[in-house]
Structures are given as structure tokens and as C-alpha cells.
Design a protein that fits this description.
0% strand, flat
């Protein structure tokens, strides 16, 4: 089943992979920003686990969708933007 999931993710487009990869950023921010909320430590822990886990899931899913060539393409895009 794990291999079927990987194959399905690899068939998604580059754009989808980039979007999924970018979605992990807000989840990371939320996972740490919620520590400033005036709620109990237990609730903070649960929220951190949920959002940090979601961020990691989105990150690894995005990398799987992009693949090695997609990651090279994404790095080249940011290098071009940086030099402009």
C-alpha cells in the first residue's frame, strides 16, 4: 500500500508538488505560534503535535510529488529570482 501511495503521488504535476510543499510553511508557523496563546499546556502540546505532524506530512508528500528533477527545477527557479 505504501508503494501504491508513492506511485500515485509521483504522478501528480510539478505545480501540485510545489503547492503542497509551500503549504507546509503555514503549518510550521502555526505549530510554533500557537505557543503564545493563553491556553493550557496540554492543549498547546496537542496543537503542536497536530500542526507539526501536518507540516512534516505535507513536506514529505511535496518532495515525493516533485521528485529529484522537480527539486532541481525548484532550486534553479529560486536562484534565478535571487540574481534578478
Amino acid at each position: 500500500m505504501k508503494e501504491k501511495l508513492k506511485q500515485w503521488l509521483r504522478h501528480l504535476s510539478f505545480r501540485t508538488g510545489a503547492i503542497v510543499l509551500l503549504l507546509c510553511i503555514p503549518c510550521y508557523i502555526i505549530s510554533f505560534a500557537q505557543m503564545a496563546l493563553p491556553i493550557s499546556a496540554t492543549a498547546k502540546s496537542v496543537l503542536w503535535v497536530v500542526f507539526f505532524g501536518l507540516a512534516k506530512t505535507l513536506q514529505y508528500s511535496g518532495i515525493t510529488i516533485l521528485g529529484a528533477n522537480g527539486l532541481k527545477r525548484l532550486k534553479q527557479y529560486f536562484k534565478r529570482k535571487k540574481t534578478e
